């Protein structure tokens, strides 16, 4: 049985988007309560009845969240232009080595705006 699981993480951070046009609101320093969903995919071991312990996903992702929470994202290596697109790829690149079943990252920058990256 093939399944896709998700677990949601949150962090608070500030950013500004230097590639947006002059006068655009997102060029100004502002903050978000970022939320992102981590999706893992694979085949369920019939004897165990589960793919991966949700706790193991948390243990793989929490150290990455700590690198973002309450920081100015533009100052983090690889996030000089921290759009939702760039953040989702950055999360993928940092989470995938410790979570090989990773299938997708969805970053929710606001309640109505999100970006999915599938590697
Ligand atoms: N393709 C992208 N477009 C925008 C990004 C982005 O990362 N990728 N980011 C922003 C801003 O950071 C902004 O904070 C979020 O944009 P927006 O959805 O416009 O925010 P609002 O809450 O103001 O949206 P409303 O639906 O108008 O209330 C902008 N664009
Ligand atoms: Zn923003």
Structure write-up:
It holds the Pfam family PTPS. One of its GO terms (molecular function) is 6-carboxytetrahydropterin synthase activity. Its EC number is 4.-.-.-. This protein is of the alpha+beta class. It is built from 2 helices and 5 strands, in the order ββαβαββ. The protein has helices at 54-66, 84-95, and strands at residues 2-15, 30-43, 71-72, 102-108, 114-117. β4 and β5 (114-117) form a beta hairpin. The longest helix is centred in the middle third of the chain and has 13 residues, at 54-66. Residues 17, 26, 83-85, 109-110, 112-113 line the site of ligand LPXRUNBV.
Q: Please give the number of β-strands.
A: 5
Mean pLDDT: 98
Q: Oligomerization state of this entry?
A: single chain
Q: What would you call the structural class? A: alpha+beta
The largest β sheet comes out as: 5 strands, mixed
Side-by-side strand order of the widest sheet:
3-1-2-4-5
**How many DSSP H or I helices?**
2
Shape: elongated
Kindly, what is the distance between the CA atoms of the first and last residues, rounded to a whole number of angstroms? 23 Å
Which bin fits the share of residues in helices? 10-25%
Beta fraction: 25-35%
User: Uncertain segments of ≥5 residues (pLDDT<50)?
Assistant: none
Q: Which molecules are bound besides the chains?
A: the ligand Nc1nc2c(c(=O)[nH]1)N=C([C@H](O)[C@H](O)COP(=O)(O)OP(=O)(O)OP(=O)(O)O)CN2, zinc ion
Rg from C-alpha positions?
A: 16 Å
In N-to-C order, the SSE pattern is: EEHEHEE
């Amino acid at each position: 049985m093939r399944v896709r699981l998700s677990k949601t993480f949150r962090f608070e951070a500030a950013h500004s988007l230097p590639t947006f046009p002059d006068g655009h609101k997102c060029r100004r320093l502002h903050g978000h309560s970022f939320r992102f969903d981590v999706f893992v995919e694979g085949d369920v071991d019939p004897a165990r009845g589960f793919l991966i312990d949700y706790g193991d996903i948390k243990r793989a992702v929490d150290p990455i969240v700590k690198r973002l929470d309450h920081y100015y994202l533009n100052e983090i290596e690889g996030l000089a232009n921290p759009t939702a697109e760039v953040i989702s790829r950055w999360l993928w690149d940092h989470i995938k080595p410790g979570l090989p079943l990773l299938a997708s990252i969805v970053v929710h920058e606001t309640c109505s705006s999100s970006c999915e990256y599938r590697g």
